[in-house]
Amino acid sequence: MTPEKQRAIWAIYVWCRRTDELVDGPNASHITPEALDRWEERLEGIFDGKPVDMIDATLCDTLSRFPVDIQPFRDMIDGMRMDLVKPRYETFDELYEYCYRVAGTVGLMSMPIMGCDENFQGDVKKVYKAALALGLANQLTNILRDVGEDAQTRNRIYVPIEDLNRFGITEQEVLRGMFSPSTGKVDDRWVAFMKFQIERARQVFKDAEDGVNCLHKDARWPVWSALDVYRNILDAIEANGYNNFNQRAYVPKVEKFLMLPQSYLKAQKAQMH
C-alpha cells in the first residue's frame, strides 16, 4: 500500500488497540462503563477535529484524507461494554453480534482506506460484506485459540452455551479443562465440539475470500496474507489435538514467511466480477 494508506491503517489499528486495552489491558479491572462513555466522547472529539494527544491526531489526519464513518468505531466501544457485563454467550447469534462489534468493525473501518479495484464493476456491498466476514473469522479464531486463557484467567466462556449443551459439555468442564482421567488426552466430546467450531470459522473465512480480490491492487496482498495466517491458526489447534486449554496455537514465524509467496500469487490472480 502507499505510505499514506499505511499511515491511515496504522492510525486505525492503534485506536482499536487502545480501545481493546481498556477492557483487556493491565488496568482492565478498574474500567467502568463511565470510562467507556468518556472514551466515546473522546472519539467524538477526534471526528470533530479535536484530538487529545498525538495518537488521536494521527486518526484525525486519516479522517481528513479518507471517508471513514464513525459508526463502526462506536460499535467497537459497544463491544467493549459487552465485555464488562457479559461473560457468557447463550447462542451463536449473540456471539456473532459481539464478534461484529469487536472485530468485524475493523474491516468496515479499513475499507474506505483500502478501496476497491479500479476495474471493479460489481456491488460494493459485496466487498464490505467480505471485509466484515474477515473480521468475524479472525475473532472466532481468537476465541477458539484462547478458550483456556479466557476461562481460567477471566472466567469468560465465549463459545456459545447452546453449542456446549449440544455436545453434552458443561460450563464447569470448560472452566477446569476437559481432559480424560484415564488417558490425559482431550475429552472426545471436546474434540467433536471443536471440529464443529473450526468448520464454522473456516466457512466464515471462505465468505471473506469472496471479496478480497475486489480490493484495490495494493491492498490485496496484505489482506490475503492476514487471512491465510489467521486461518492457519485453526490448523494449529487441530495439530495440538484440539487442546486449547493449556496449549496456545500459533503459526511459527518461518511458516508465516513461507506463506507470503502463496498469498502474493492469490492477490495477483484477481478476477473481477
TrEMBL record:
Pfam families: SQS_PSY. Its EC number is 2.5.1.32. It catalyses: 2 (2E,6E,10E)-geranylgeranyl diphosphate = 15-cis-phytoene + 2 diphosphate. The keyword Transit peptide does not apply. Keywords: Carotenoid biosynthesis, Transferase. GO terms for biological process: carotenoid biosynthetic process. GO terms for cellular component: plastid. One of its GO terms (molecular function) is geranylgeranyl diphosphate synthase activity. SUPFAM superfamilies: Terpenoid synthases (SSF48576). It is an enzyme of class 2 (transferase). Belongs to the phytoene/squalene synthase family. PANTHER family: BIFUNCTIONAL LYCOPENE CYCLASE/PHYTOENE SYNTHASE (PTHR31480). This is 15-cis-phytoene synthase. It comes from Ostreococcus lucimarinus (strain CCE9901).
